[in-house]
Amino acid sequence: MRLYDWSWWRKFRKSFLAAHPLCVMCEAKGLVVAAKIADHIEPHRENPNLFFDEKNVQALCRQCHGAKSAKEKLT
């Protein structure tokens, strides 16, 4: 089973985005954009220690998440 399919993640994601409704990257630019994705700051690559670390999560909009993911694939 994929880690994203775990009920813990679904519940955590929902409560995290409710508590952090704005994209942190857009906020840093002075923009107010709704976050839709609970993103792992450091890619977990199926490592449960990184995946379940609540300090390793940030709220992002789809556009910022896509840009971050594309950049990560290059490294």
Could you characterize the architecture of this molecule?
The chain is mainly alpha-helical. The chain has four helices and two strands, in the order H-H-E-H-E-H. It has a two-stranded antiparallel sheet. The relative contact order is 0.19. It is globular. 47% of the residues lie in helices and 11% in strands. It has one domain.
Question: How is the secondary structure organized here?
Answer:
Blueprint: H1 7-19, H2 24-28, E1 37-40, H3 48-51, E2 57-60, H4 62-74
Antiparallel strand pairs: 1-2
The N- and C-terminal alpha carbons lie at a distance of: 26 Å
Regions with pLDDT < 50 over 5+ consecutive residues?
Answer: none
H/E element order: HHEHEH
Query: Which band does the percent of strand residues land in?
Result: 5-15%
* Mean of pLDDT: 94
Helix content: 40-55%
Number of helices: 4
Largest β sheet strand count, sense and barrel closure: 2 strands, antiparallel
Assign an overall shape. globular
Taken together, the total number of domains comes to 1
Tags for this model:
two-stranded antiparallel sheet, single chain, 2 strands, 75 residues, 4 helices, mainly alpha
Entry summary:
By secondary structure, the protein is mainly alpha-helical. It contains four helices and two strands; from the N terminus they run H-H-E-H-E-H.
